[in-house]
Every structure is written in structure tokens, then in C-alpha cells.
């Protein structure tokens, strides 16, 4: 078994596409900015985040037609230089809610939200430093 992706069901596909592609700098697989589906990948690693139009999935599972409430996901991305990355994405429109700050003695984190309110945690792993 292999984890292919984490998929987020979104109402405003275009805003989320811009956030993951242009603001966070992840690479879209096909360039389908209008949806209803797109997978984004970082420059390294094989894991990915995909966006799926909620209305399309509601045609498959009726219960998905309801709006999501509360925090239902936390997307975690590892970065090498947290302070520099946060400065970079802030210039591109991201709003950092917390951090960069220590979370444990092994990592520093920053938190923000995508346009749908999904939480995104940026991690800098301190153990990787020599």
C-alpha cells in the first residue's frame, strides 16, 4: 500500500488552487486551475496534496453537499528554512497565524489557513541540522 495523496474538499477551487500553487509554491500536476481536481507536489518527496471540488464529490456522496464546519484537516509541510519561507509566502499573500516558533525541542512550526479555512502547519525539523 502507498499513500497517494491527501485530498481536500473545497468550495472555492480557484482560490485554493492559487494558494497551494502560487502562495505556498507547490507544483500543480496538470495546471487545471478551474478544477474540479488538481494534485500539488513539493519539489522533493512523493507525497502530495490534492484539491477536489466539493460539489462534484457531493454528486457521488450526498452528505458532502453540506458545508464543512470546524477544523477537519491539518496539512503539514516540511521546509528547510522556516523563517525565510514564512517571509517569502507572506509577500505572496499568506497570513501567518502563529510562529515561527518552537513546538518541541525537535521542531519549529508556523501555522496559517488556506482560503477554505484548512489549517496548514509548516515544520522545520531541527534534528536534521548537523
Automatic annotation (TrEMBL):
VOC domain boundaries: 2-125
Protein name: VOC family protein
Species of provenance: Streptomyces tuirus
Amino acid at each position: 500500500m502507498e499513500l497517494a495523496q491527501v485530498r481536500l474538499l473545497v468550495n472555492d477551487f480557484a482560490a485554493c488552487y492559487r494558494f497551494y500553487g502560487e502562495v505556498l509554491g507547490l507544483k500543480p500536476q496538470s495546471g487545471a486551475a478551474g478544477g474540479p481536481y488538481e494534485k500539488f507536489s513539493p519539489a522533493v518527496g512523493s507525497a502530495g496534496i490534492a484539491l477536489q471540488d466539493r460539489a462534484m464529490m457531493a454528486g457521488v456522496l450526498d452528505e458532502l453537499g453540506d458545508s464543512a464546519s470546524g477544523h477537519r484537516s491539518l496539512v503539514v509541510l516540511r521546509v528547510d528554512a522556516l523563517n525565510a519561507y514564512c517571509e517569502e509566502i507572506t509577500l505572496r499573500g499568506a497570513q501567518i497565524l502563529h510562529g515561527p516558533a518552537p513546538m518541541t525541542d525537535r521542531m519549529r512550526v508556523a501555522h496559517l489557513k488556506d482560503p477554505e479555512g484548512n489549517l496548514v502547519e509548516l515544520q522545520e525539523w531541527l534534528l536534521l541540522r548537523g
